[in-house]
Specification:
By secondary structure, the chain is mainly alpha-helical. It has a domain at 1-52: 434 Repressor (Amino-terminal Domain) (Orthogonal Bundle). The protein is 56% helix and 0% strand. It is built from six helices and no strands. It has helices at residues 2-6, 11-18, 22-29, 36-45, 60-67, 70-74. The radius of gyration is 17 Å and the shape is elongated. The N and C termini lie far apart (40 Å). The relative contact order is 0.11.
């Protein structure tokens, strides 16, 4: 709900554009069970995606790969 509200998205618009009922969206926002298909449809409409990651702490190589582009974005020439 927080992301929806800060994005200025109305629940009725998300429900209509996702092809899901407002009740499904309400259940999802309350943390109740919904189908994976419903979740994916709602996320798509909100411009979000679901990413699966291995459980546990990432390795140094995984951290380096994930954050290596941050040095380029900082604009710091240090």
């Amino acid at each position: 709900m927080e992301i929806r509200k800060t994005s200025g998205l109305k629940a009725t618009d998300i429900a209509r554009n996702s092809g899901r009922s407002r009740n499904v969206l309400n259940r999802l926002e309350r943390g109740e069970d919904v189908t994976v298909a419903s979740l994916m449809d709602i996320l798509r409409v909100m411009g979000l995606t679901l990413r699966l990651e291995r459980a546990g702490l990432p390795s140094l190589a995984e951290m380096t790969a994930r954050f290596s582009n941050l040095d380029d974005e900082d604009g710091d020439a240090s």
